[in-house]
């Protein structure tokens, strides 16, 4: 997507309509919003007494937790790759 071009997309998340505007592709925006919707439905189905706001907050907490775990895993992989590269240079 070129500079200044915005994607505008109306999506459904947990029964509510939202217009999302961003620089990402329509595919990316749909993928993100579908993941949020899926997680909200998963949490809502397990906790029928929670209102939408609490489901949304728990969804955010769960998704940020997943993100941080993946970020930590990525850093570990980068460190391991760096160690392997250094070992190859030394033994090369």
From TrEMBL:
<keyword id="KW-0963">Cytoplasm</keyword>
<keyword id="KW-0717">Septation</keyword>
<feature type="coiled-coil region">
    <location>
        <begin position="60"/>
        <end position="87"/>
    </location>
</feature>
<dbReference type="InterPro" id="IPR053712">
    <property type="entry name" value="Bac_CellDiv_Activator"/>
</dbReference>
<dbReference type="InterPro" id="IPR007838">
    <property type="entry name" value="Cell_div_ZapA-like"/>
</dbReference>
<dbReference type="GO" id="GO:0000917">
    <property type="term" value="P:division septum assembly"/>
</dbReference>
<dbReference type="Pfam" id="PF05164">
    <property type="entry name" value="ZapA"/>
</dbReference>
<keyword id="KW-0132">Cell division</keyword>
<dbReference type="GO" id="GO:0000921">
    <property type="term" value="P:septin ring assembly"/>
</dbReference>
<comment type="function">
    <text>Activator of cell division through the inhibition of FtsZ GTPase activity, therefore promoting FtsZ assembly into bundles of protofilaments necessary for the formation of the division Z ring. It is recruited early at mid-cell but it is not essential for cell division.</text>
</comment>
<dbReference type="GO" id="GO:0032153">
    <property type="term" value="C:cell division site"/>
</dbReference>
<keyword id="KW-0131">Cell cycle</keyword>
<keyword id="KW-0175">Coiled coil</keyword>
<protein>
    <recommendedName>
        <fullName>Cell division protein ZapA</fullName>
    </recommendedName>
</protein>
<comment type="subunit">
    <text>Homodimer. Interacts with FtsZ.</text>
</comment>
<dbReference type="GO" id="GO:0043093">
    <property type="term" value="P:FtsZ-dependent cytokinesis"/>
</dbReference>
<dbReference type="GO" id="GO:0005829">
    <property type="term" value="C:cytosol"/>
</dbReference>
<dbReference type="InterPro" id="IPR036192">
    <property type="entry name" value="Cell_div_ZapA-like_sf"/>
</dbReference>
<dbReference type="GO" id="GO:0030428">
    <property type="term" value="C:cell septum"/>
</dbReference>
């Amino acid at each position: 997507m070129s500079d200044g071009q915005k994607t505008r997309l109306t999506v459904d998340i947990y029964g509510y309509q939202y217009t999302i505007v961003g620089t990402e592709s329509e595919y990316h925006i749909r993928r993100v919003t579908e993941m949020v919707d899926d997680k909200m439905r998963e949490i809502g189905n397990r906790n029928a007494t929670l209102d939408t706001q609490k489901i949304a907050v728990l969804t955010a907490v769960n998704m940020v937790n997943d993100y941080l775990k993946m970020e930590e895993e990525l850093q570990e992989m980068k460190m391991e790759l760096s160690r392997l590269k250094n070992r190859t240079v030394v033994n090369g």
